[in-house]
From TrEMBL:
Catalytic function, reaction form: L-serine + pyruvate = 3-hydroxypyruvate + L-alanine; glyoxylate + L-alanine = glycine + pyruvate
The family this protein is said to belong to: Belongs to the class-V pyridoxal-phosphate-dependent aminotransferase family.
Protein name: Alanine--glyoxylate aminotransferase
Organism, scientific name: Hymenochirus boettgeri
Gene3D superfamilies documented for this protein: Aspartate Aminotransferase, domain 1, Type I PLP-dependent aspartate aminotransferase-like (Major domain)
EC number from the UniProt entry: 2.6.1.44, 2.6.1.51
Residue positions, PTM N6-(pyridoxal phosphate)lysine: 208
GO molecular function, one term: L-serine-pyruvate transaminase activity
Binding, substrate: 359
Cofactor: pyridoxal 5'-phosphate
Length: 391
């Protein structure tokens, strides 16, 4: 029979879907535990069903707990960590606003790119990868640039640095500046107190310590940030990420909730369960477990003769560990070997850390002693079998 179709059904789609299991010990996403996988199989609901609004309310409370905040404007955006990053900049920043970006890895670079695209006057405060900023350095830059917003990454997953945040909020507020913090790679894995630390805008992602699939990103705004957002002179450049709409959809504006976009309901179910697991375990237990397991991993790596990339032990991110690429090896040989022979994902560097580091993630459900043992055995094997002195 002749067909009017010029494009035939793709033959690849006519064979069953197959996704092999890998142990995901890179910087994310991480393996999704059964309880969260099951949540993802529940029936899809309409975007304005009362049951869905209840689940969204649960998520909001879960985020308030994970962030340690009472902020009313707290929700999950429909997208990955980058989407939360854009939500923050698109809503808080207007053309010409001075923003100061702390760059010590890829995430500051990405933030500066986003801010530049919306016409912000972007200023930089930079450090080499592997280091963190001091309050004195930040204060000097605030005094010099007088920004309305300061961006900094808490868990710099490209370098493995945990940025200390105590005192940062007060400092920014003394300079009439809002503090925006990226906690995609650190939330639930290292102490973070949005309200106590004076963070005005905080965002994270679903696919790291929260163990949910990628696709939703928690975000929260302080009273001061909300004031700036709702008194802006121009509309944000994205309707999809416009917080006036999102505040209503997430029940944060006290008005009847109406359709804005079709929320990724299946991902909401998974995120709700990820937050529920964190609430059951307790944040402090989660922080302690990530720290203990990171220390065990660090010890094992040093016993293999490997060098941790972050020199100061206090600045090591418990969720993502960076190792200097061992001399004589090609980093990609090691990651490829581990994937091929052990079904384990670890990764090389990203942005400015590319070629310098290997990255091992121990996050959420994956932060366990058996996984530490597995990754160390696989690494030892890779070091024995990958070609050396290729340089
Ligand atoms: N910030 C940090 C610190 C991250 O680790 C990541 C993801 N690796 C992102 C932002 C971006 O998140 P996503 O990939 O979910 O867009």
């Amino acid at each position: 029979m002749s067909s009017s179709l010029q494009v035939k059904p793709p033959s690849n789609l006519l064979v069953p879907l197959h996704v092999p299991y890998k142990l995901l010990l890179g910087p994310g996403p991480v393996n999704v535990p059964p309880r969260i996988q099951i949540a993802g199989t529940l029936p899809v609901t309409g975007p304005t069903n009362p049951e869905l609004f209840q689940i969204m309310d649960d998520i909001k409370q879960g985020i308030q707990y994970a962030f340690q905040t009472q902020n009313n404007l707290t929700l999950a955006v429909s997208g990955s960590g980058h989407c939360a990053m854009e939500t923050a900049f698109f809503n808080v920043v207007e053309k010409g606003d001075i923003v100061l970006i702390a760059v010590k890895g890829i995430w500051g670079e990405r933030a500066a790119d986003i801010a530049g695209r919306i016409g912000a006057d972007v200023r930089y405060l930079s450090k080499p990868v592997g280091e963190a900023f001091t309050l004195t350095e930040v204060e000097k830059a605030l005094a010099e640039h007088k920004p309305s917003l300061f961006f900094i990454t808490h868990g710099e997953s490209s370098s493995g640095v945990l940025q200390p945040l105590d005192g940062m909020g007060d400092l920014c507020h003394r300079y009439n500046c809002l503090l925006l913090v990226d906690s995609v790679a650190s939330l639930g894995g290292a102490p973070l107190y949005m309200d106590k630390q004076g963070i005005d805008i905080l965002y994270s992602g679903s696919q790291k310590v929260l163990n949910a699939p990628p696709g939703t990103a928690p975000i929260s705004f302080s009273e001061s940030a909300s004031k700036k957002i709702f008194s802006r002179k121009t509309k944000p450049p994205s309707l999809y990420l416009d917080l006036k709409w999102l505040a209503n959809y997430w029940g944060c504006d006290g008005k009847p909730r109406i359709y804005h976009h079709t929320g990724p309901v299946t991902n909401y179910f998974s995120l709700r369960e990820g937050l529920a697991i964190l609430a059951e375990q307790g944040l402090e237990c989660s922080w302690a477990r990530h720290r203990e397991n990171a220390l065990k991993l660090h010890k094992g790596l040093e016993e293999l003769g490997l060098k941790l990339f972050v020199k100061d032990p206090e600045l090591r991110l418990p969720t993502v560990t960076t190792i200097s690429v061992p001399i004589g090896y090609e980093w990609k040989d090691i990651t490829t070997y581990m994937m091929k022979n052990h079904d384990i994902e670890i990764t090389g560097g990203l942005g400015p850390s590319t070629g310098k580091v290997l990255r091992i993630g121990l996050m959420g459900y994956n932060s366990t002693q058996p996984n530490i043992d597995r990754v160390l055995i696989a690494l030892r094997d890779a070091l024995q079998h990958c070609p050396k002195n290729k340089m």
